[in-house]
Amino acid sequence: MHEYPTIEACVGNTPLVRLQRLQGETSNTLLLKLEGTNPAGSVKDRPALSMIAEAEARGDIKPGDTLIEATSGNTGIALAMAAAIRGYRLLLIMPSHMSDERKQAMSAYGATLIEVSQEEGMEGARDLAMAMQARGEGRVLDQFGNPDNPLAHLKGTGPEIWQQTGGTITHFVSSMGTTGTIMGCSAYLKQQNPDIQIVGLQPEDGSSIPGIRRWPEAYLPAIFDAARVDRVMDISQSDSETMMRRLAAEEGIFCGVSSGGAVAAALTLSREVENAVIVAIVCDRGDRYLSTGVFAEG
């Protein structure tokens, strides 16, 4: 009998496409890894499935258990999908100002939402998750400190990029939130070629970009190792949003704000180098942000 895949098998193996217009005249090749094609719509599908599958394989959790996670959006949606696939109850804690699409998507997958105030933010959400675990209300997967997060990119995203570029990649650009993507991809790509430059993005002071952060020292993700990032670039909210709108209108690539920031940074980088192959992570789709009005501005 023919074996058909489950939805789980559709996570990963995302397209890598080149920019056609935005880069202008250049000797460089600018490539975008389209993570919005994952089934729950973002790069976070990879670590979400990895954290649940690896914990299950170790015997740390079993179907029917309650999982808890603090999230600003994409990880929550991805975890809600992964929990639905594998049969877990999921409690998600998130700041109240996240977009309605995100909240509704999490609920659609069957997760229970608990909101903290915008002032409490992700730090408050993370603190509440740990307090709930201490009270025996479930198990925190902890995307910020769980090595199974970067493992998903060490096993999946990094090897895909290396293969898709035929080993020609010279620069890797990624926004930094939990830092799982950049940590896992850096580990793999540097094994293949130590000269590949790993560029991480953080919002400049005063900018609010969903999914990426300038973490206070006390909340720096435990999985983050600064030595794995060759360069950190600050990106502004306005540049990220402008590039996001341009990608949709001029390239037909409909993505979120942090992805706009990653492409803006890749274009800045492209002006500094020659004959480079620059890969940027486009971590989600733009439809997740429509209710915020961000595509109508500018």
From TrEMBL:
Pathway: Amino-acid biosynthesis; L-cysteine biosynthesis; L-cysteine from L-serine: step 2/2. GO terms for molecular function: cysteine synthase activity. Pyridoxal 5'-phosphate binds at residues 74, 177-181, 258. InterPro entries: Cys_synth (IPR005856), Cys_Synth/Cystath_Beta-Synth (IPR050214), CysM (IPR005858), P-phosphate_BS (IPR001216), TrpB-like_PALP (IPR001926), TrpB-like_PALP_sf (IPR036052). Keywords: Amino-acid biosynthesis, Cysteine biosynthesis, Pyridoxal phosphate, Transferase. The modification N6-(pyridoxal phosphate)lysine is found at residue 44. The keyword Transferase applies. Its EC number is 2.5.1.47. The keyword Transferase applies. Residues 9-284 form the Tryptophan synthase beta chain-like PALP domain. GO terms for biological process: cysteine biosynthetic process from serine. It comes from the Bacteria. Signal peptide: none annotated. It holds the Pfam family PALP. Belongs to the cysteine synthase/cystathionine beta-synthase family. This is Cysteine synthase. It comes from Seongchinamella unica.
